[in-house]
Amino acid sequence: MNMYTAMEPGSGWPGLTSLDSGRSVDAVFISGGGSGIGRAVARLFAQRGWFVGLGDICPAGMAETRDLLPAGSCSVHILDVRDPAQWAQALAEFSLAAGGRIALVFNNAGIAFGGPLMELSEAEIDMLIAVNFRGAVNGARAAYPHLRAAGPGSCLLNSASAASIYGAGGISIYSATKFAVRALTEALDAEWLADGIRVCSIMPGFTDTPMLDGPANAASTRQKRDAIAGSGRVLLPVEDVAQAAWDAVHGTRMHTIVGKAVKKMDLAARFAPGYMRKKARGLLAARG
User: Fold this and answer.
1) HSE value, Cβ hemisphere, 13 Å, CA-based, for 128
2) Taking the model in full, what pTM does it have?
């Protein structure tokens, strides 16, 4: 199913910033572009002259994002990231809308269920793995031929998380999916080097997005935001994460860590694992 609205096919997109000196960038495709981090990244990149493709399972959310962007700067595509065929169709349509070249794919779509492992239903566990990890794998596989065709300077950006630095109690399966995305990033960075494709990730902490609305899981009445507040964590502004995505694409780091607290967490996980283990246990106890 196609909803794209954009320029005339094959017309290209003028005046875009280059990933490599002297090269023009055609477009960025963003999964999960209907809200949250995806929407913020779409706004930032569009404001800086990029042509943006929005992929999401929610048409209304994408319409809201589209209305926040400069006129004619985006195309809209229905996308359930669990379906490889939908990925292939969305990127094929977006390539046509963008004039034939996709330089950046942001593997961003994700969901979050929390609570103790034994409180999660089988359906919730399966959904987390299917969307957060298999969705990222599907996105990478669909993006590869487009990025390879775009040539050196093209990039796959994955959305990992602070939860991929150290396993977080109370969000065990979510954390495991983000560890998997981190591993996928590192593996593809090596696999795709010869094709001139950069692979990198962003690792934000808890971010103020609609993904935190509602209860942690179907068996819980505790709201996600309340659980985070109870642990003493501060939510990141979504604009900070969008800027980190920009910096990741235009920088050289494989993983871009977002937020002062997350940077401290990364250092502790690497150089003081005993302290990190104690800290992680304390945070879980504080959430109650």
Assistant:
1) 24
2) 0.85
